[in-house]
Task: structure prediction
Amino acid sequence: MYSEKVMEHFNNPQNQRKMEDPDAIGKVGNALCGDVMWIYVEVGENEVGKEIIEDISWETFGCTAAIATSSMVTELAKGETLEKALEITNEKVAEELDGLPSVKMHCSNLAADGLVEAIYNYLDSSNKEIPEDLRKRHEQIEQHMEKVQEEYGDYVEMEEEMHRTG
Result:
């Protein structure tokens, strides 16, 4: 059912930890399956002064695919410029994992959306210009998260409490 790469990232996840004092956090979830992801980023500069994802980590409540995609997106984004990191899509993550079962594509592959939210939150909190494409992606994700909250509010609040208390 799952590719070897998916199982490798599930059994040996990369960058899995709650980051202390990140520059930004992206949180996403899926109402269909209950998966919730937090993507943490620390932004720095490369040798030519462009902002890069200097460090990235994640926490996920979810299935095998959710964990594997969280691990993979952090591997793809680490060290990349913010612009390049925004090119990482859920489809690209699935491709890098040698595919996901079709029933898991929409349900568990949220990690790239979490990365988008983290970058959006970083730019917003830093009072930096937010590209129109990023603003639109954020609005779509935000609308989805509102639906999650409406349909699964008690569950989301319970996960938030568990996340806060560790």
